[in-house]
Amino acid sequence: MKKPALTLAAVLALPALTTGCFSGGAGGADGADGSGDQRLRLAMLQPPRSGLSPLSDDAFKLSRWSTAETLVELDDAGDPRPGLATSWEQTAPREWRLELREDVVFHDGTPMDADAVAGALQAAVDASPVPRILDGFSLDVATDGDDAVVLTTGEVDPLLPARLSSPQLAVLAPAAYDGDGPVDPVGTGTGPFELVASDGTAGATLDRFDDYWGEPAAAAGIDVSYVPDGTARGAALRTGEADVVEAVPVSQQAGIDPDLLHEVAMPRTNTLYLNTDRGPFADPAVRAAAREALDPARIVADVYEGSADEATGLLGPALPWAAPLREGGSWAATVGGRVEPATPAEVDGAPITLGTFTDRAELPEVAVLLEQQLEDAGFEVTQDVREYQFIESDAIDGAFDAFLLSRATVLDSGDPVAYLASDFGCEGSFNLSQLCDPAVDAAVEEAARTPAGDERRAAIIAAEAELLATDAAIPLLHERVSQGEAAGVRGALRDPRERELVDSGTRVER
């Protein structure tokens, strides 16, 4: 097994080290097989929070490295396409049959068959907490011979194929699920790169998998460093210490060759979540006062230097259908509850705690402006800013009166319903606002039942309207993310859904 890559923070602290020292892995910069193929060096935004378990948000790292794969993938338009399953058929209102790809082997050499796939899906169904994509969702899994599985849902689910594209439902070898500990992705995926070492919150090492079922990887491997500090990520790109860099902060871009920066419009909304369960924001009128106090345009101009879009809702320009539906009012016919927010209260010295995290470099700056704007409206603000891994559990538990979050809105299935249910449903697993509102739940459930297409999109905007009327979440802006790519990088993926970064065709020429 290879020695894990040296952390990027250590590299940046030692100027005398050469670029090759960053490469890690037994094969070094020239590749494990001596062919001269280069290894890719990635500087990732956040370290794992759950030991790279595919049943957590860490699954998106495994997906971005092309080591763990799903039965279904999404095309650029968000429609399902074959992955480890070659086809699927709805055989009954609640039943789907999926044919599995032949000749797929896991990285540990075991074949992928129906039993392995069913075991992986069952592990997700049985997990506690359940993966977000299965939050409130019933799924029974059965095999149909050696090369097909049959999935039965508790209710009719028109989006099951898209749901199966979530990286949290990646299929790993049976060995990954052995024992009572966390799911172990090391050496158990199916992708073109095999995860051979994971060094906690420092980095990870992947090698090309020569028995991959698809196009073999052009790069010899991948050396990953987790670099939460935005200044360090910018420096890694500027100095050539990394080949592909996630989320280069606006504040670091002035000193970087613009040809190395690639802006991607993201389905990611910078949102202020207000605690509806306790404290001052339990009062809808006080939440309305906070909404009226905020000036998103100033945040876009001062912090993002214009490289963001002021929010008019939770769903931004990366979902081009949302704004026309919202502006046209076609959602109104499906709304059965309240869509008008409360009248703002007068605020005089109400103390509130405002939390956010440092991993996205702009958020602490945004928090400073929010503090100023809220204090101008009569609130007394105390900030709590930490790395995300050290603040997430407190945020989920409702420890803050307000929490500023950069949130992906279609991360799981390419459809916003899962995000709305997770973040704003009474039983939602990521309900930072602690919201439990029957009208919101009913609107989200209606959207979930509606078949794909224009009718479903209108129902989604109706649910958004119900949610915004509570002022439990105040959308501020929609982010555009700048991805850094060194001059020799070819074929890096610029994915708005943040599922893909490196694939078989990605390579670097030094």
Automatic annotation (TrEMBL):
PROSITE patterns: PROKAR_LIPOPROTEIN. It holds the Pfam family SBP_bac_5. Residues 492-510 have a biased composition (Basic and acidic residues). Keywords: Signal. CDD domains: PBP2_NikA_DppA_OppA_like_3. SUPFAM superfamilies: Periplasmic binding protein-like II. Residues 486-510 are annotated as: Disordered. Residues 80-429 form the Solute-binding protein family domain. It comes from the Bacteria. InterPro entries: Peptide/Ni-bd, SBP_5, SBP_5_dom. Residues 1-28 form the signal peptide. This is ABC transporter substrate-binding protein. It comes from Nocardioides lentus.
